[in-house]
């Protein structure tokens, strides 16, 4: 039997290659495992986990994460190790570094220190991982340092995304508050204008119409041409009184305050009936709701009816108002021409839908619009029936 002669050089080469393979596997596992974990952790836990992984990867027993806020003030957001030694690490944190930096401090409690910067999408450094060890170590090789830099970059991306999301939520909340105030002010102004019109112009028009009727009743027989003119004036005055009442009802319907949401919506639906559109109430609820709920759903229903009259070319509209599971739900279905998803709509229609959506959202509710070309449109709004906030 022939034996292959033993080659020490080959054995050493195989061992070195095996160790290199192990190192690459460890680096890959560090990045993959940590990346999967960070996707499910809160920001504070992300910082702790990355610091723990970084220390474990280089077998270093101390570490901290130093971050700088928008004003340049530094604070430690994660730490591991002896507090007294960590205080020294914090003084070493350097924001000017752009790449990993190895530091040797002979004679100190932590003689070996590694700095790994956290860089944002703009290239600027907003934080740094500072790792230290109580026993002097060799500087990590280039691949290990690069792996830790990738780990820090992964953390930086998650933290930046969280900051952007927090900023976006704050702006969205601020915008909602502004819209809320705008709608509230708009409702107050509508109420004021409605009362001013009712007590001023509407009364004047009604008085004018009555005086004209009285004059026509006392007037002696007139020639046909003058009689026709007088009748036209009476008709115009009567029409002006009707338009004034309709305008006041649109601004702030008295029936909503006096009789509730169903009666107000049914009165609003008279505009559909007058236009020859058949109105069918599938279900309705006469219960009184909080004022802000009634106003929001009334405005949504009013805008939906406006859309039917202006755009739908419908012959029938089905309405539903009901209480279910603690919510007040309004539905408006028409059999009009509808529109396809992505089909351009005019600015007024788009703004109307956006306003309906915002009114429901401000009360913690939901709004949906489903339509199909030549298949009609369904608008639905549901809001908490016992909302106690201050939204209009």
UniProtKB/TrEMBL annotation:
Q: Which organism is it from?
A: Pseudomonas trivialis
Give one Pfam family.
HATPase_c
- List, for all copies, the residue spans of the domain called Histidine kinase/HSP90-like ATPase: 292-387
Any one GO molecular-function label of the UniProt entry: phosphorelay sensor kinase activity
User: What is the official name of this protein in its record?
Assistant: Histidine kinase
Which PANTHER family did the record assign? NITRATE/NITRITE SENSOR PROTEIN NARX-RELATED
Identify the InterPro entries for this entry.
GAF, GAF-like_dom_sf, HATPase_C_sf, HATPase_dom, Sensor_HK_TwoCompSys, Sig_transdc_His_kin_sub3_dim/P
Q: Which GO terms describe its cellular component?
A: membrane
Q: Which domain of life is it from?
A: Bacteria
Q: Where is the GAF domain?
A: 42-169
Which UniProt keywords are given for this protein, alphabetically ordered?
Kinase, Transferase, Two-component regulatory system
